[in-house]
Amino acid sequence: MRSALPLFVTLMLAAPLLAQEAADAVAPENATETGASGFSERAMAALAARDAGDPVTAQDWMVAAANPLAVEAGADVLEAGGTAADAMVAVQAVLGLVEPQSSGLGGGAFLVYYDALRGELTTLDGRETAPLAATPTLFQDETGEPLGFFDAVIGGLSVGTPGTPALMEDSHRRWGRANWQSLLDPAISLADEGFSVSARMADAIANDAERLATFPATAAYFLPDGAPLAEGTLLQNPAYADTLRAMQIHGADAIYEGPIAEGIIDTVRSAEGNPGVLSLRDLAAYRVIERPAVCAAYRGMDVCGMGPPSSGALTVGQILGMVDNFALEGPGNPDDWRLIGDASRLAFADRGRYMADSDFVPMPTEGLVDPAYLEERAQLIEGDRLDPGTALPEVAPGNPTWDHAQLWADDESLEFPSTSHISIVDSYGNVLSMTTTIENGFGSRLMAPGGFLLNNELTDFSFRTHRDGVPIANRLEPGKRPRSSMSPTIVMQDGEPILAIGSPGGSRIIGYVATAIIAHYDWGLDLQDALSLPHAVNRFGTYDLEEGTSAEALAEPLTAMGYEVNIRGLNSGLHAIAITPDGLIGAADPRREGIALGQ
């Protein structure tokens, strides 16, 4: 095996719950509710609690994830004495079946893990890798110009070497107690017997039907008889069940060698109109990498997560590190949003220039979260707190301390919101935060013979290699891992974990996670209210406000400060668990169909 709130705040909480222009071209997954068919009483109770705005409490263990069937599978493992790593394997296996548009065996993931026995925090990098035959100009036309996004995505060209199966196995080998085979049984049963298609999955299929129809195997599964699967349809996937049975016997090797691997490669390289270059050699060479966590100081805590090739921990840490220099008043104060928004813009400027796979490019990782550097950056946005300031007219990357100098050009790569997040705390005190993805909704739209979709992760690289003669850090290179915004996070205090949190949402993940932490620890919202709070996110200058919510009330004051404002759908999928002296508190984002369960 492989290795008493102001009225504005009350309204906010009661509300239902390149760069800018290019990133907005692809809409996030639709926010819809799941049908209740097939859910247990405890799952239904968790759904009711979430919709009522109540956090879930427990004493022993807890799991929060994106689909009740997956959460049930993880809860059963924890209830039987399994670890957080054991439960994650069961949860991920079910998610790949019931939420295939977001993650699965054909994708990749980042995991942050606190090992209670050793008192250690570490991370595992299960990000996809570029094929060895890939070239830096893979996503350029014959004139050297970048391809259109979907011209690159649909088909084999965008497929990187999957990492999720290896990450599942590696995590179990390190921290598991339960029998590996048993952890895959729930997903096998659901695949064999069928599961009820949720409203969210049905909507995702209907909204992407034209692209899903591109390839026969994909169309046959999602568009039987030429029509999108409807909510409530009993859907079976015997090929997926057989793949998991092979994994029960051979572990992750069942994916990386043998018939399933050959089927993956044939699917990629024979994709009509847009074949890729992935090879059996790439699958055989794939390895999960253990990396040190990246932590940033905030309000006496350490906010820790995944370092490069993820930009998540660094950019979340930068936002919080800059905001740490100010006293915030609450979500009803527009000037708080000015501070958060401009801190985010400055952090994204650094992200665009410096952040990439540090195994391939030098990075000022420590310098980017140095409190002295972040205090210097915060001075740019300080303003006058008695007379609320105006938006920064422009932002630029800073000059963090380097171990050695390197000049990079600013990146314009895109990242889109089809991802999932899992937070787990087990009865032994282990804590897991994992974000998992196939990148765009339904990934490359290629269905492998093993019953799972293949990622389009290579389009997270910059389509350009240089700008004005200066190289771009996140350019594509053979074997390299594309930069990500996935931000699985564990917040530590006095050496102990106090929160596990993360979200899907493309590059807006960073803002979702940072703001939820601010809402909980600065503004004093309980965990469910922090996750339900209407979104306001600024990455590149435009302030995105969540449509249909009271976040729209921020439009006028933010416009007066000088921001361009865009009211739009913002569909996060935050899942969080707080570890407190009185027990565990869990919450799930009401914008999606997930729940938190505990005991």
Q: In words, what does this structure look like?
A:
With 599 residues, the protein is α+β, with helices and mostly antiparallel strands. It has 22 helices and 21 strands. The strands form five sheets. It has a seven-stranded antiparallel β-sheet with strand order 1-20-19-15-14-9-8. The chain has a seven-stranded antiparallel β-sheet with strand order 7-4-3-11-10-2-21. Strands 16-17-18 form a three-stranded mixed β-sheet. Helix 16 packs antiparallel against helix 17. It is globular. Residues 3-36 have low confidence and may be disordered.
Keywords:
22 helices; alpha+beta; 7-stranded antiparallel sheet; 34% helix; 599 residues; disordered N terminus; single chain; 21 strands
Query: What's the N-to-C terminus distance?
Result: 32 Å
Poorly predicted residue ranges: 3-36
- The best one-word shape is globular
Helical proportion? 25-40%
Spatial strand arrangement across the major sheet: 1-20-19-15-14-9-8
Cα-atom radius of gyration: 22 Å
What structural class results from the helix and strand content?
A: alpha+beta
Q: How large a portion of the residues is in β-strands, by DSSP E?
A: 15-25%
Q: What is the average per-residue confidence, as pLDDT, rounded to a whole number?
A: 91
What composes the largest sheet? Answer: 7 strands, antiparallel
Number of helices: 22
Extended strand count: 21
Q: For this entry, what is the oligomeric state of its chains?
A: single chain
Topology:
Layout: H1 7-14, H2 20-23, H3 41-51, E1 56-58, E2 62-65, H4 68-79, H5 84-98, E3 108-115, E4 120-126, H6 149-153, H7 164-175, H8 180-193, E5 195-196, H9 199-207, H10 209-212, H11 216-222, E6 234-235, H12 238-250, H13 253-256, H14 259-269, H15 280-285, E7 289-291, E8 294-298, E9 301-305, H16 312-323, H17 334-354, H18 365-368, H19 371-378, E10 418-425, E11 431-439, E12 466-467, E13 470-471, E14 489-493, E15 496-502, H20 509-521, H21 527-532, E16 536-538, E17 542-546, H22 555-560, E18 564-568, E19 575-580, E20 583-588, E21 595-598
Parallel strand pairs: 17-18
Antiparallel strand pairs: 1-20, 2-10, 2-21, 3-4, 3-11, 4-7, 5-6, 8-9, 9-14, 10-11, 12-13, 14-15, 15-19, 16-17, 19-20
